[in-house]
Amino acid sequence: MRATGWLVLSVAIVAGLTIAVSRAAEEPAAATSSPPTEANAPATVQPPASVVPVTPKDAAPPPSVTIIGASEAHGVLGRDVRSAAGEDMGRIVDVIVDRTGHVRAAAIDFGGFLGVGSRKIVVDWNALRFGKIANKKDSITLELTKAQVAAAPEYKEDTPIVVLGASGSLQPLQAIQ
User: Fold this and answer.
1) With contact defined as beta carbons under 8 Å apart, do 122 and 138 qualify?
2) Which of 3, 7, 52, 81 has the least CB density, counted as fewest CB within 10 Å?
């Protein structure tokens, strides 16, 4: 049964190509002669009734491509975060975006030792500085002190997010209805 399907498909492709070639051969001749009338119009070739036309399913447009140099951008998940004074603030474990896809904040795994006793806090994205991340061992700088971050409430999924921001830089998240 499968071989019959391939045979029908092959016949349809050959018939389609034959029709396309014959029409292409007729087009230059039609362009040089006078406009066709019903009396001298070329006969239209109809494909056999059993042939199903083969067309690609909703061909997607080609994707855009952007090339970013290795020294131009770096991933941030898992990166160490330090205060401006060099204090260990934890590491970035999540990035928080709003409904429009704009990055609003970063969740930092703060405190504890080797993951024991740590908690997640959320800091405003604008409070982070990325100037010194040339390789994976470089850290991100947070414009907050260790005491300020220690006083922040813990981040828990599916609850309102309290975002700790640098002085005066945090904007309220507007509810989108």
Assistant:
1) no
2) 3
At 97, phi and psi to the nearest 5? -120, 155
CA trace torsion 132, 134, 137, 138 (10° rounding): 0
Cα angle for residues 176, 157, 79 (degrees, 5° grid) = 105
Cα 112 to Cα 90: distance, rounded to the nearest angstrom: 9
pTM of the predicted model over 0.85: no
Q: Are residues 127 and 104 in contact, defined by beta-carbon separation less than 8 angstroms?
A: no
Percent of the chain clearing pLDDT 70 (strictly above) = 58
The C-alpha angle with vertex 18 and arms to 16 and 19, in degrees rounded to 5, equals: 65
What letter does residue 147 receive in the DSSP assignment? Answer: H
What integer pLDDT is reported at residue 177 of this predicted model? 40
The overall average pLDDT reported for the chain is 74
Distance CA 74, CA 60 (A): 30
Structure tokens at 80: 């160490």
Query: What token pair was written down for 20?
Result: 């396309």
Both tokens of 35, joined, read 């406009």
DSSP 8-state secondary structure symbol assigned to residue 101: S
